[in-house]
Design goal:
The complex is a heterodimer of chains A (115) and B (113).
Chain A (H helix, E strand, L loop, with lengths): L4 E3 L2 E5 L4 E6 L4 E9 L5 E8 L4 E4 L2 E6 L4 E6 L8 E9 L9 E3 L3 E6 L1
Parallel strand pairs in A: 2-11
Antiparallel strand pairs in A: 1-3, 3-8, 4-5, 4-9, 6-7, 7-8, 9-10, 9-11
Chain B lengths: L4 E3 L2 E4 L5 E6 L6 E7 L5 E8 L2 E4 L8 E4 L6 E5 L8 E8 L7 E2 L3 E5 L1
Parallel strand pairs in B: 2-11
Antiparallel strand pairs in B: 1-3, 3-8, 4-5, 4-9, 5-6, 7-8, 9-10, 9-11
The chains are: A mainly beta (115), B mainly beta (113).
């Protein structure tokens, strides 16, 4: 499978419920980021977690990172209809020669929050 | 502070024509990245540029595709002699330094007739 694979591919929940999605990757990373994409729009950065961090919170978002399992999860609590979007994890590979921030994206999780 | 601006938002070309996609990074950002997204898929890295320099173009096809980020003006992704398989959404992102999160534009949707 590719670097940064999300699971599940699609998720349908009721407003107020929690949404959890997972991401697996293959190489050693500097950090992992989660992005949201609304239909027809660009990506919006949600949260960045560094390789030496295990958990991070931002509002209704909670991200975990397990570098031993090369996996991350994104939890959206008390979901709203406006959370309907595709969610992508992205990793930057440790030791990339250009020392830049070349991101490798997974295929995304499409989340539908029903009112 | 305006975000990353891409134009045009939609571009239609016939096979064999040239496509030019423009990206103006956020003010103060000197790192620009181009990605391509096929329907129902994630973004795939194409090229990373700093002012007047291509830092990494490992994700860009060797033929027909080129990118630049001149000292003045926007970054340009150029596709010559387009083919149907070039149909995709092309996104530009920028960051102030390489270690900071990237900010994305709304993309250019390229359709090849």
């Amino acid at each position: 499978s590719q670097q940064g694979e999300e699971d599940p591919q699609a998720l349908s929940i009721q407003e107020g419920e929690n949404a959890t999605m997972n991401c697996s990757y293959k190489t050693s990373i500097n950090n992992l980021q989660w992005y949201r994409q609304n239909s027809g729009r660009g990506l919006v950065h949600l949260i960045l977690i560094r390789s030496n961090e295990r958990e991070k919170h931002s509002g209704r978002l909670r991200v975990t990172l397990d570098t031993s399992k090369k996996s991350s999860s994104l939890l959206i609590t008390a979901s709203r209809a406006a959370d309907t979007a595709s969610y992508f994890c992205a990793t930057d590979e440790k030791g990339w020669k250009a020392a830049g921030n070349k991101l490798t994206f997974g295929g995304g999780t499409r989340v539908l929050v029903k009112p | 502070n305006a975000g990353v601006m891409q134009n045009p938002r939609h571009l239609v070309r016939r096979r064999g024509q040239e496509a030019r996609l423009r990206c103006s990074p956020m003010k103060g950002h000197s790192h620009v990245y181009w990605y391509r997204q096929l329907p129902e898929e994630g973004l795939k890295f194409m090229v990373y540029l700093q002012k007047e320099n291509i830092i990494d173009e490992s994700g860009m096809p060797k033929e027909r595709f080129s990118a630049e980020f001149p000292k003045e003006g926007p970054s340009i992704l150029r596709i010559q002699q387009v083919v149907r398989g070039d149909s995709a959404a092309y996104f530009c992102a920028s960051s102030p330094v390489s270690s900071q999160p990237q900010h994305f534009g709304d993309g250019t949707r390229l359709s090849i007739l």
